[in-house]
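@channel sequence for tomorrow's demo:
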Amino acid sequence: MDGSLPPGQIETKRFPIVGERHPGPELDDPSDWSLVIEGEVGSPVEIGFAEFLGRAASEVTFDIHCVTSWTRFASSFTGMPLADLLGAAVPLPSARFVSFEAYSGRGHHTSLPLEVALADTWVVHSFSGEPLAIEHGGPVRTVTPGRYFYKSLKWVRRIVLFEEDRLGWWEANSSYHNNAEPWSGTERFTTGSLRPGQLERFLEADRYDKYRGRVMLGLDLRGWQPGHRELHGLQLKNCDLRGVDLEGVDLRHSNLSLSDLREASLRSADLSGSDLEGANFAGADLTGANLTDTALSATRFAEAGQKAVIAGAVFAGSSGLTESQEAYVSSGSGISDSAREKGHGKV
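structure tokens (generated this afternoon):
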């Protein structure tokens, strides 16, 4: 924790909600929480909620760095080091990796090298002196300060030690980098997900049905002229869309997280229900665009020298803006008087 920002991060004093917001049905009652430690261990362990609370009273303070590009400095949690829990399980010499599994409807999990987890991971139950809210992983989650926050797991239910690594949910499904070290600036994602020939076919396509739901990562889409306006459901993550003409397109329920849309035209585009976390819209034209119910953690609409035009844009139900970006949107900058009177632009 040193109060400085890794490459590509922006500061927030809020604690944005990321990922799933509720655990699976097995954890309807937080007091039913329990944790199992097994795998390459000499003595498997199971610990219940009351016992854990009785043992986990230490505090750790660190800077959270989310892969979507927000950073929250000096974040304080109460719990205990993972090393203290694993000591009772007696890890075997064959144990080289640790997998954390969640009470999760989608089977969420993540992994770390055991030596990293022993040095850096905590199992915690409180944030800033208060019990962890469910949407932030309560009653109990893990935190690993030295990695992007997707390596910290909400609603932990099972810790398994393995000889070989097991890619986590985000790493396997969204090509998030398995090492996740924030300071290099190169470990958010793995490399681009389409080979040159595949990218050429995508750029020339006049229909996009076969691409919906497929994560397309790190693509250079500058100069793209979509052959059809129906782009809903596309997952164009960490892509370069600078200056692209997307006027009037249907991008409902898409994923443009961490993509660069500076100077793009999105006039009257429908982005409702989309994941726009970490996307950069500075200098883009969003006149009349629909951003209803969008995820906007660390999304940029204004930065030095560039501001998005958001006249008539609708942000109803959207969430996650950092303080500076919310101030820009809420101030009415770039919003016409008539749109402001109708409440457009409010987050």
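heads up for whoever presents: The chain has two domains: 10-184, 194-347.
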